[in-house]
Amino acid sequence: MSHENERDPNCIFCKIIEGKIPSKKLYEDDEFLAFHDIDPWAPIHFLVIPKKHRASMAHLTDGDAAMMGRLMLLIPKLALEAGCEPYPEGGYRIVTNTGKNGGQEVHHLHWHVMGGPRPWLRG
Ligand code: AMP
Ligand code: ZN
What we know:
CATH architecture: 2-Layer Sandwich
Structural class: alpha+beta
Distance between the termini: 37 Å
Order of helices and strands: HEEEHEE
CATH superfamily: HIT-like
Bound molecules: adenosine monophosphate, zinc ion
Oligomer: single chain
Helix content: 10-25%
CATH topology: HIT family, subunit A
Strand order of the largest sheet: 1-2-3-5-4
Number of helices: 2
């Protein structure tokens, strides 16, 4: 499936998807890309993004329900593959900042996945 027409040419994460900006990739399929956060807060900190450009959680529609379901099932698998220890002693945190008051800086929908031994730099 092609997502050529679902990108924003000014978006930094769309540029990462297209390979125009380098990233340390953890996982990629037709629908999602996961890569390490450039400024990690925790020993393990990566981002998962849909390849379709969606600016934020506030932009999702009913048509995105299946994609969201697949994403939520993918993240726990990626967290373990990235080195997070299993629940309950290990685990991880999933965060999606939305809008200005939510602390969102990059306006391409993304999930932060953070884990690894504490203390963390933040959170
Ligand atoms: P947010 O504040 O939720 O929008 O988070 C944006 C995240 O993207 C921050 O944690 C940044 O460190 C991360 N980030 C920005 N640019 C890059 C990049 N080129 N590669 C990897 N992570 C990035
Ligand atoms: Zn984008």
